[in-house]
Amino acid sequence: MSVVGATGVRQVRLVCGIILFCFVVSHFLNHALGNISVDAMETGVYYHTLFWQFLPVAIVFYTAALIHMGLGLYALYQRRQFRWRTIEPLQLVLGLSIPVLVMGHVIGVRLAQTLYGHEKLYPQELYLFFVAAPGLLWQMTILLLIAWVHGCIGVYFWLRLKPFFPRAAPYLLAAAVLIPALSLLGIYQGGRSVAADSDDGEWRKQHLSRRQVGTVAEGDTLERIASGLTIGYFGLLGLVLAARGVRALRERRGGMIALSYGNGKTVRVPKGLSVLEASLRHNVPHASVCGGRARCSTCRIRIIGDHDTLPTPSQREAFVLTRVGTADPSIRLACQLRPTSDLSFFQLFAPHTHATGGEASTSASIGQERYLVSLFVDMRGSTQLAEKRLPFDTVFIVNRFLGAVSQAVIENGGQPNQFVGDGMLALFGLAADPQTACRQALKAAAGIAMHIDALNDLLSHDLRQPIRFGIGIHGGEVIIGDIGYRDHIVFTALGDAVNVAARLQDMTKTLACETIVSEEVRRTADIAEDALPQQEVAIRGRDEPLAVRVVANARELAGLVDRSERVAA
Questions:
Q1: 10-residue averages of pLDDT along the chain (569 residues)
Q2: What is the per-residue pLDDT for 355?
Q3: What is the structure's pLDDT at 539?
Q4: Distances 136 to 92, 149, 232, 474 between C-alpha atoms, Å
């Protein structure tokens, strides 16, 4: 079962939205040329239309617009609760209002050109807004702002989990403010210029001819078409709302079911609601990092009693449960399970709540999806070291080892995260892109080796044999967030990439090397393919072997990274 198949609708809506937002950005920048002159606007719109009306591009654009609108209506029907976050219902409402506001403009410009050959450009449109029908200017301003805010919210949801977003956010915010401001100011400046020129009869003769603005009869026809399409769209909205009502009525007539949470709490809800939606409707705290999108498994529940009568897991639910290694049929995702009879269960993950208010914590503190590089390092021979030393002496040496390791990690942009005995997990990529994170981790491995060399020299009079170590490095998507209970909460990363790094570190013992680097890290860091010997290893919990690079001497990694950076430069 592929990820693409399980998330197809959401990905299609995202791709269509990005295409439409690119058009909006292009159009806004064209408007901004009005701050120079109307002639500049006309020059800009020539290249704008040259690209967007190029037949293959036009087909993609209008297809994306229709699909995006259709998926917006489907989202309105599908959504059961509007309390995930305020911004999401706002985005939906803004998106559904755009077709109503833009219909007249599209018909008056694009369809008029197709049917009657009208050539309405900036002089004609600005004359309409600033002279002939000033009331339409406010409608157009509202449309521009709604389209921009809707698009920006979509871009935010798309990029917020990307590793580069914290660094890019200030620049994106500046663009989100400046582009519409300059666009509206350009329209105002261009409109003032057109309004002043329109008093000249020669200007009117040149820019308001029948070929450019059409006849009254043609205008009436276009207006009737726009009105008909607008009414049709409202009809579609009405059908969707009616379908929601019919669904709610059928659910109520289908009967109510009782959901028991295993802690004495029981709620009654109509059939058809998911367990997570039932929790939200009755204000029952329920963990859900991804907001009910089946992109995580934190809303998992274990069914108490018979689970044979439950609906079969959807494709997406089955994928997530398989991904987390859950084969127990009594474990389900609360956001996907829609029981049709009374159900008893308990939550596998207790929801985060504040100490006093009981309100749900923010998703940032619960978890976020990020691409990180995990580096596991472990001290070799610590057991034998402890057998022949006083306990405090052993603690001293282990602390010096962990201090040397941590210093190398910090020097190379990483963050020491967990200390387990004489081992440590370090994370790279919390404030860097994947390629930089991979290079930082490789340099940190070389730095660890050099710091341990210095430590061995320092303690040579007290060590029978030098301190040795093993390092495993792997990168991938993980969940980062706060883990623990009450006053014992720590920030860490969880996921397959972390587990693989730990397994690779352990394999350095059997492969007699200092470091094992996954092929994913080698490729992302852009290290030469022939720079390190390749090997395939079996990872516990994985069906297929993993390609890795075996590094006998970790110190050489720094030179390989430097060479890669010079080639890239």
A1: 48 91 95 94 93 94 94 84 66 90 88 86 90 88 94 87 80 95 95 92 88 87 92 94 85 80 82 85 78 75 83 85 77 88 82 42 54 91 60 75 92 88 88 91 94 87 81 90 65 84 91 93 90 88 84 92 84
A2: 37
A3: 84
A4: 24, 20, 22, 57
CB 409 within 8 A of CB 442: no
Which tokens in the block code for residue 214?
């059409």
379: enclosing H helix or E strand: strand 368-380
Note down the domain range covering 340.
Answer: 256-347
From the list 390, 433, 399, the residue with the least C-alpha distance to 413 is 433
**Distance, CA of 482 to CA of 493 (rounded, Å):** 9
In angstroms, the CA 186 to CA 146 distance is 18
SS3 368: strand
CA distance 193 to 156: 36
* Residue-level pLDDT at 367: 55
Are residue 35 and residue 77 in the same domain, yes or no? yes
Cα-to-chain-centroid distance, residue 218: 46
- What would the two tokens of residue 288 be? 């859900």
Claim to verify: residue 288 and residue 202 sit in the same structural domain: no
> CB-based contacts of 146: which residues, under 8 Å, 6+ apart?
94, 97, 98, 101
Chain Cα centroid distance, residue 271: 32
The reply to whether the predicted model has a pTM over 0.85 is no
How do 468-485 and 515-518 pair as beta strands? Answer: parallel
Judge if 432 and 559 occupy the same domain. Answer: yes
**Range list of H helices, 291-389:** 315-323, 363-366, 382-387
Q: Which tokens sit at 430? A: 């919390």
End residue of a domain, out of 219, 242, 265: 242
Q: Give the number of C-alpha atoms closer than 13 A to the C-alpha of residue 296, restricted to the C-beta side.
A: 21
Rounded Cα–Cα distance for residues 323 and 325 (Å): 5
Q: Does residue 167 share a domain with residue 25?
A: yes
Residue 356 lies in a domain: no
Decide which of 347, 376, 406 is a domain's last residue.
Answer: 347
Q: How far apart are CA 294 and CA 290, in angstroms?
A: 7
d(CA 285, CA 265): 11
Cα–Cα distance between 362 and 493 in angstroms, integer? Answer: 17
The angle formed by the CA atoms of residues 339, 9 and 226, to the nearest 5 degrees, is 115
Would you say 434 and 442 are in contact if contact means Cβ atoms under 8 Å apart? no
The CATH number given to whatever domain includes residue 45 is: 1.20.1300
Tally of domains in the chain: 3
Radius of gyration of the chain (CA): 31
- Same-domain pairing of 233 and 286: no
CA-wise closest residue to 31 among 101, 129, 135:
129
> How far apart are the C-alpha atoms of 167 and 487, rounded to whole Å?
30
Do the beta carbons of residue 536 and residue 547 sit within 8 Å? Answer: yes
What is the C-alpha separation between 286 and 259, in angstroms, rounded? 13
Please give the full DSSP string across 409-438, using - where no structure is assigned: HHHTT-EEEEEETTEEEEEE-TTS-HHHHH
Is residue 426 a contact partner of residue 375, using CB atoms and an 8 Å limit?
Answer: yes
